Amino acid sequence: MRVAVAGGTGLIGRHVVTLVEQAGHEPVVLARSRGVDITTGSGLDAAIAGAHVVIDVSNVTTLSKKRAVRFFTAGTEQLIEAGGRAGVKHHLALSIVGIDRVGFGYYAGKLAQEDLVRRGGLPWTVLRATQFHEFAGQLLDRSPGPLAVAPGMRVQPVAAREVAQRLVELATGPAQGRAPEIAGPQAHALVDLVRQVARARGRRRLVVPLPIPGGSAARNGLLPTGEHTTGVQTFAEWLRSDGAHGGSSTGT
Q1: Distances from the Cα of 160 to the Cαs of 22, 61, 140, 225, in angstroms?
Q2: Is the distance from CB of 114 to CB of 80 less than 8 angstroms?
Q3: Residue 42 is assigned to a structural domain of this protein
Q4: Taking burial as the number of CB atoms within 10 A of a residue's CB, which of 10, 50, 129, 156 is the most buried?
Q5: Rounded distance, CA 181 to CA 156, Å?
Q6: Within a domain: 186
Q7: CB-based burial label for 249 (10 Å; 0-12, 13-18, 19+)
Q8: In this structure, what CATH number is given to the domain that contains residue 57?
Q9: Distance (Å, rounded) from C-alpha 99 to C-alpha 105?
Q10: Is 134 inside any structural domain?
Q11: What's the number of domains the chain is made of?
Q12: Does the model's pTM come out above 0.90?
């Protein structure tokens, strides 16, 4: 089976490509570095030809609502239109737990993406995941100087590889619509995770929580609710194995 992976060179995409290969399928990477721009459609028809499944884990690094909506709208529309022309049987998109409860600008882009996938006319699945373990380090990297800030929220981080494994499992089965969410095994205060990463990297940084309006509902808005799949690797285990070495700036 031929599986096209949009964003296949990013943090989650690299895992997806590897796992698709290990499952005995043929991955096709859709990325600018491979001559494909999903936001304009350049090179997309040729790359997606013969694909049975599209897994969209594409990403843009931005806090801007306008930029996020523009990126995810353009990319999703192009992927669905090209998928229709190519006879794709299953369109699978990775999304984020809590995007309809937390009003971050980036999440407006993910909501727009989900809406387009639902209305796109192809059999579809959307998998919402919590933040990857790498997220705390990304926040630290984005705060130059001696002071770092982190939203005063609770998160339930999950291993990127475990999310990729779930995506591949879903991609090789029938479309499910909204699949059960996936989250890590433990919930934490996000500011505590950023402090742990700073210590693991040997950095003297003052990490302070950024107040979140909306009370407890907002502070807990990124946690899974109802039925969900639970990952295995804890944040502490990840930190001991990978976290002190930084990581990709991509991911949810």
Answers
A1: 17, 17, 18, 20
A2: no
A3: yes
A4: 129
A5: 12
A6: yes
A7: middle
A8: 3.40.50.720
A9: 10
A10: yes
A11: 1
A12: yes
pLDDT digits (tens, 9 = 90+) for 155-208: 999 999 999 999 999 999 999 999 999 999 999 999 999 999 999 988 888 999
pLDDT digits (tens, 9 = 90+) for 6-56: 999 999 999 999 999 999 999 999 999 999 999 999 999 999 999 999 999
Q: What single DSSP character describes residue 211?
A: P
Q: How far apart are CA 99 and CA 101, in angstroms?
A: 5
Tokens of 45: 């028809």
Helix (H, G, I), strand (E, B) or coil at 238: helix
Bridge partners of 80? none
72: domain range?
2-245
Structure confidence at residue 244 (pLDDT)? 59
Phi, psi of 94 (to 5 degrees): -90, 130
Q: Is 96 inside any structural domain?
A: yes
Q: Which two tokens stand for residue 70?
A: 């523009």
Phi (first) and psi of residue 246, to 5 degrees: 80, -150
Question: What's at 139, amino acid-wise?
Answer: L
Q: Which residues contact 65 (CB under 8 A, 6 or more apart)?
A: 105, 106, 108, 109
Q: Answer yes or no: are the C-beta atoms of 49 and 86 closer than 8 Å.
A: yes
**Residue-level pLDDT at 250:** 38
Q: What whole-number distance in Å separates Cα of residue 19 and Cα of residue 55?
A: 12
Spatial CB neighbours of 181, under 8 Å, sequence gap ≥ 6: 97, 127, 128, 129, 130, 224, 226, 227, 228, 229
